[in-house]
Specification:
Elements: H1 3-22, H2 34-46, H3 57-86
Helix pairs in contact: 1-3
Length: about 90
């Protein structure tokens, strides 16, 4: 995979993650256009970051933390549900 293809895949990953955290539909097409920029600004505003639409390392670390929280919450729910079924 060349660097342009890697960049597209990185943007797609950001788009999918933003969609999940913000509970909004964002097409993961690998193009950082107007809608992607607007979603990044909304994410930045929601989580107290500088709202400039630039997806930098601080933004990425915040997004990873929010995704981790969602995964942890899901796993806790799944485990509790499984334990209830076992009883």
């Amino acid at each position: 995979m060349n660097s342009a293809e890697m960049r597209i895949e990185e943007i797609k990953m950001v788009q999918r993650s933003l969609s999940e955290v913000m509970n909004r539909d964002l097409v993961d097409n690998g193009h950082y256009g107007h809608y992607s920029e607007r979603m990044v600004k909304e994410f930045q505003e929601k989580f107290g970051l500088k709202s400039d639409g630039i997806f930098n390392e601080i933004c990425w670390n915040t997004l990873k933390g929010k995704i981790s929280n969602k995964i942890n919450n899901f796993l806790c729910f799944f485990i509790r549900t499984s334990e209830k079924k076992a009883d």
